[in-house]
Amino acid sequence: MARAALSRLSEPGDAVLGRWLARAGAVAVVECIRDDRAPDEPELDPGRLASYRARLAGVDPSADLERVRTRGGRFIIPGDTEWPSQLDDLGTGRPIGLWVIGTGSLRLLALRSVSVVGARACTSYGAHVAGELGAQLAERGWVVVSGAAYGIDAAAHRGALAVGGLTIGVLACGVDMSYPQGHTELIRRIAEQGLLLSELPPGEHPNRFRFVLRNRVIAALTRGTVVVEAALRSGALSTARRARELNRHTMGVAGPVTSELSAGVHALIRSGGATLVTDAAEIGELIGAMGDDLAPRRAGPVLPRDLLEPAVARVLEAVPASAEGAPVERVARESGLPPDEVLQRLYELGSLGFVERCGAHWRLVRRR
User: Fold this and answer.
1) Which CATH class, in words, describes the domain spanning 61-287?
2) Residue-level pLDDT at 324
3) Among 2, 53, 82, 222, which lies 20 to 30 A Cα-Cα from 33?
């Protein structure tokens, strides 16, 4: 109850309040604010304490908890069995608590999760790639996490939902709000087929700073972050930077070099801040269990001549590409093999359709 009240007193990531909570506990903090008793906290100046106290007067945590409960949600705090312990890596900026809607266990779902983020005003290429990644990751048993915003976020969520996968939307507003309004149906589907969560209490609206602060939760919650498209100044890059600071895997998808929306991702990869990935298999290999989530080996098509024994291949390489070809002696000289062996190999190559005899000369078969 005390933490539900405190979630209305400050913005997410309030390090001063976080240090106070770590030292005194939520109940004692609420009592100090209510009684206007300044604790021994150097950065907690009278002005900040007065601001907390003014907000506390209008807070009704019971009403907030009931409002979310009627939507099928709950409020979880550090120490609960459902609390994802990886959020503790945020230190004093750790969420006071999380308002959650959905039936799955956040702690369990987050154990095998990956965030897919990027530009809101994405290109058709970016939307296609994000959707494919979302679907592929879900099919490989990964939970796709994003911010439910326009562009890359929405494409990643929809990709996971399309294949019956689980996805988590981390909101910059209350979990009972639909923002953006155009995503009302998408947010409803995420709540039904996955989880919605937010640090902000019900009824709270987003602002520019809350989007940035929300990104640190996305970065900390997941095993790794994939940036699909991002300009040089992009909120998605802040998620990637936080992920890297938290020792999470940071990955990027390359795009056209002529696209400004890929410039930020390219700079991230070039600086060593992210690993280049092209599909879910490569993502899984980086963030999955050692030896269990290996990506398939990449190789070009196997050509018939790739299957030739070394000696036979040497003879084939020695046959000139000219129409007149060459006699056995010349082929032997070029290949460095004895003439008798070269003659034998030429007949083998003839049987395989690589060369043909024309009088005393051998030449390559012209394929049409």
Assistant:
1) alpha beta
2) 87
3) 82
